[in-house]
Amino acid sequence: MAYGSSTVPLMTPPREGDARPLYLRARPWCERSDAELIEAARDGVPSALGALLDRYEPRLRRICERMCSCPEDARDLAQETLIAIVRGLDGFRGDAAFMTWAYAVARSFANRQRRRTRSRARVDTAVREVVTVAIVPSVDLEGAIDRQRVYDRFERALSHLSEVDRSVLIARDIDGMTAPEVSRSLGITVSAVKSRLHRARQQVRGDLRGQPIA
User: Fold this and answer.
1) What does each C-alpha distance from 145 to 124, 142, 208 come to in angstroms?
2) Against a cut of 0.90, is the pTM above it?
């Protein structure tokens, strides 16, 4: 979905001594930095906001799809996240990358969505398989009588983690975020991310190995 004419340059070229903000100089929106787009969007330039959303919406939608158990929930989550980003742009301080902030917004809405529907947290089947194999290499998914039971075990093991440990493990092992990105998103130190990730993996291993497959 295209929100703005991100490839159309502004009409007036820059002049010597031009005191206008950088975002008002003559360059296509698609070539501007995030900081320029955010500044312009805050000043009420619709095409700048459109270019910013065009830049990040596809990645946000993929993240929302990984956070949800069904396409409809993912679409709702993406819509809520984009609306919240637009409404909350003035509150973005720039301490972290824009995508890190947007991810935190999506994660917050995903948690609310899960509480609202009272549904158990589910992970996409393909992702669950990858993560289960990565965390517990001894689990033979191909040889399991009922593959779904293995996936259910993994979900139960996740539910036994604390909220922060679960968020760290999902962000690192499922969403593919780096330790610094998780640190900024959750407001904890990088060393805390690493120690919590290690603890979460150990606990999930213990839970899975302590449960029968069939």
Assistant:
1) 20, 8, 16
2) no
